[in-house]
Structures are given as C-alpha cells and as structure tokens.
Amino acid sequence: MDIEPEVLALIQHAKRVTILTGAGVSAESGVATFRAYKEETQESLWSQYDPQKMASIDGFRENPNRVWQWYQWRRNELKNKEPNDAHKAIAKWQQSKTQNVTLITQNVDGLHQAGGSKDVIELHGNIWRNHCLQCLADYNGDVDGVETVIECPECGGQIRPSVVWFSEALPEQAWRDAESASYSCDLFLSVGTSSQVYPAAGLAALAKSQGATVIEVNPEPTESSVVDYCIEGKAGEVFKTLNI
Ligand code: BV8
Ligand code: ZN
C-alpha cells in the first residue's frame, strides 16, 4: 500500500502527535469490532447483542448475570489474542526522542499495553478490571469461570466490569488528559474507529479547532467531517508501511 508523500511528510514532521484508537486497531488480532465492517462481512459483535442491553447500566440492573456472562464471553474471546503490528508500532513510536506521542484508546481489551505501550489513556475503561457497582471498591479476585455476579466483600454489592457503559460518564482524569492531548497536538491520528461514540468521537474536532491536521487510518473512510486525509488501509499494514 502506498501513502501519499504529502501525508507521510505530515506524519514524520509532526512535533506533537495524538493518536485515538478504536476497535479497528485490534481487528487484525482477531478481535471482533463493534460494528460490522462490510468488506470482511465480519460477524459484528453488537449485531449479536443489543448494545443498550449489554453495555449499559440499565441492562446490568435489569439482568446482571446476563451482562456479566457477556463480559465473561468477551474475556474468553480475548484470552488468546495477541497484539498486532499496529499495537507494536504505536508502542515503538511512543518511545520516539524526536516526536511527542500520546495514545488515547476507546478499546477495553488491553492489547496496547500487551504490545508494549506504557502510557495508555483508556477512555472506556478496561475489561480485565472489576469493581463494585455500589461502593466502587476495586475487586481483584480471580473471576475466571465465574458465571454469576460476585457479591462485593466490602459492602455486599454487585461486582461489575470496570468499563464505561453507555450513558455513564468517562473517567474524569482520562477525559482531561485526552482533551489536553487533543488541544495541544499538531497531528491527530484517528485509527480504526467509526467515530460514532461520543464524547471520544469529538476529540478530532477539538484538535482541528486549534489547527491540528487530522488523519484517519481506516479501510473505509468514515463520515467524520473534520478528517483532512484518510489513509485507506488496515492499521497493521499501514503502520508497517509507515515504518516510524
Ligand atoms: C456519556 C465500553 C454522558 C464498553 C463503550 C446521541 C448523539 C450523540 C451521543 C449520544 C447520543 N445518544 C447517546 C449518546 C452518548 C453515547 C453515544 O455516543 N452513543 C452513540 C452510540 C450515539 N455515549 C455515551 O453514553 C458515553 N457516555 O455520554 O455519558 C454523561 C456525562 C456526564 C455524566 C453522566 C453521563 C459513554 C460511551 C462509552 C460506551 N462504552 N465501550 C464495552 O466495550 O463493552 S463504546 C464501544 O464503542 C467501544 O468502546 C468502542 O471502542 C466504541 C467505539 O466504537 P469503535 O471503536 O469506533 O468501533 P467500531 O466497531 O464502531 O468501528 C471500527 C472501525 O474500525 C470501523 O470504522 C472499521 O471500518 C474500522 N476497521 C475495521 N478493521 C480495521 C479497521 N480500521 C483499521 N484497521 C483495521 N484492520
Ligand atoms: Zn461494594
């Protein structure tokens, strides 16, 4: 795949790079994305389940065990998944001495960390962590194979996955860090996201508003109106070509 020289130059000469990743960056690791990706007629995760039921506080309150089991299924799906070339290339880029690179992810799979990234701004939490819905205490017990909601040892409440559900606020510190990284970059790279979920999808517009160039990496351009350039390709292949 070839990348236009002008785009390549923008990426190589940027001083402060902010990267926002979505489910597409894990697609080449074999992880289902949330919305069907036409070319691969990949089974879309959400199409099997109603997201408002599964990834929402109302869904959990209505049927805690069903939501808990969906997350246990997803954790099982993730167990044998490895970071791909995109995760590894981004981790290497973050070590750059000449460019300041900040990584923000909407993903909850932990594959950026597995690929070597140290500082990851996790806007939507992390599927490998759990906490109590009622008293918010972290729960560090082993949940492998546990099929029903665990009772909180601190308060008797319900243990839930530490991900951000629809209509829940994003973690304050993560959102502040993501906003400031978007306000202060000269290049905003949106990788493998359909840019449909807010407020994460609004970060590119924040970056654009202060003069950053917005580049998207996606096999199919999204409707995002703030994108300056789209590198049409799979994240792993694009980052391999970029060789940064
Ligand atoms: C909040 C964690 C308020 C859980 C997730 C109407 C209009 C605007 C907004 C709203 C609205 N109604 C409601 C809202 C708000 C809502 C929202 O945005 N809804 C959307 C659907 C309209 N947002 C919220 O509820 C957020 N909270 O607003 O709170 C508030 C404020 C203060 C106080 C209290 C409350 C919370 C949103 C977080 C939800 N949690 N995940 C879990 O994972 O189970 S979201 C979920 O979607 C994932 O995190 C995922 O990352 C995220 C976004 O999806 P993408 O990552 O983009 O994935 P997708 O499949 O869509 O796209 C993949 C892309 O990759 C595609 O473009 C594809 O082409 C591409 N691709 C495929 N293969 C490759 C590739 N790209 C590169 N390489 C490849 N190989
Ligand atoms: Zn508790």
TrEMBL record:
Family: Belongs to the sirtuin family. Class III subfamily.
Cofactor binding comment, as recorded: Binds 1 zinc ion per subunit.
Active site (record annotation): H124 (proton acceptor)
Domain comment quoted from the record: 2 residues (Tyr-71 and Arg-74) present in a large hydrophobic pocket are probably involved in substrate specificity. They are important for desuccinylation activity, but dispensable for deacetylation activity.
PROSITE patterns linked to this entry: SIRTUIN
Catalytic reaction annotation: N(6)-succinyl-L-lysyl-[protein] + NAD(+) + H2O = 2''-O-succinyl-ADP-D-ribose + nicotinamide + L-lysyl-[protein]; N(6)-acetyl-L-lysyl-[protein] + NAD(+) + H2O = 2''-O-acetyl-ADP-D-ribose + nicotinamide + L-lysyl-[protein]
Positions of substrate binding: Y71, R74
Cofactors that this protein relies on: Zn(2+)
Lineage start: Bacteria, Pseudomonadati, Pseudomonadota, Gammaproteobacteria, Kangiellales
Any matching Pfam family: SIR2
Compartments, record wording: Cytoplasm
Protein name: NAD-dependent protein deacylase
Residue numbers binding NAD(+): Q106, N107, V108, D109, G192, T193, S194, N218, P219, E220, A235
Task performed by this protein: NAD-dependent lysine deacetylase and desuccinylase that specifically removes acetyl and succinyl groups on target proteins. Modulates the activities of several proteins which are inactive in their acylated form.
Limits of the Deacetylase sirtuin-type domain: 1-244
